[in-house]
TrEMBL record:
Residues covered by the EAL domain: 24-264
Protein name per its UniProtKB record: Uncharacterized protein
Domain of life: Bacteria
Species of origin: Deinococcus ruber
Residues represented out of the complete protein: 330 to 593 of 593
Amino acid sequence: FRVKRAGGGHASFQRHEDQRSYLRGERLSALHQALERNELQLYVQPKVDAERRTVVGHEVLVRWIRPSGIVSPLEFIPLAESSGLIGLIGRWVLRQAVDALKTGQLQEVCVNVSALELRESDFVAHLRWVLEERGVDPQRLWLELTERSLLEPRFIPVLHELKALGVRTALDDFGNGYSSLMALVNLPIQMVKIDRSFTAGIGEDTPDGLRALKVVRGIVALATAYGLLTVAEGVETPVQADLLMKAGCAYLQGYLFGRPAPLS
Ligand code: C2E
Ligand code: MG
Ligand code: MG
Ligand code: MG
């Protein structure tokens, strides 16, 4: 009886796995088609100067527009990464973003780049070519990288190449991972983006809120001491914006100043 039950359990597990990989295959070929059918769409979210509250640039956030609804990058970027499609998607996003700089639709833009894209040996050469071909000043482009990328020693030369090219880099989602800021401040990067979880934690007059505020002040102070600009993500309330500004954070980004919206 026991053996039979175990066997039955295994069969059902197998069915479940088959179904999952079937669904993954379906979604993957749909994502391939999305590129061909132009179903991907750039959304952009403004970044504001913390003191003047004026827009200084935009972050590109890609969306997949399907007949059934809009698919979040949190869903399809991991799929693209695990299937190798991220290279094509990343280049498409980059071209669209640089085109928007060329036409003057955007003045300055931040593009998210995954570690797998950086791994392409011709990543910087391709980027240089895209900028040159469109005659766009590299200073108008920022790349947002996560600490997963920045902590891979083999990417350090890539960071130096980007710096030499004039394209600046930001550490995205800082505080979300496990590394200390000390491990990152000496890298050739120019900006630290403070993770939304920190922003969400401040602004409340509770022990937790006050502690979160102290941590944010510490991050901003350390980053600034190393010559890095700071931007806080996920700013949703005026209280958070004021506290971050007073903490010395240079830029703010979040629903308070604008939700991601389609780049027409
Ligand atoms: P991220 O780069 O950290 O982007 C910030 C995310 O927070 C975005 O989610 C944005 O819509 C959301 N957000 C902005 N302000 C607020 C706020 O005030 N409150 C809240 N609750 N959320 C806010 P989104 O657009 O779903 O993107 C998720 C992630 O997908 C991005 O995180 C980024 O890692 C990745 N991603 C998006 N576009 C691309 C892309 O073109 N290439 C790559 N490689 N990754 C991308
Ligand atoms: Mg980002
Ligand atoms: Mg984040
Ligand atoms: Mg982020």
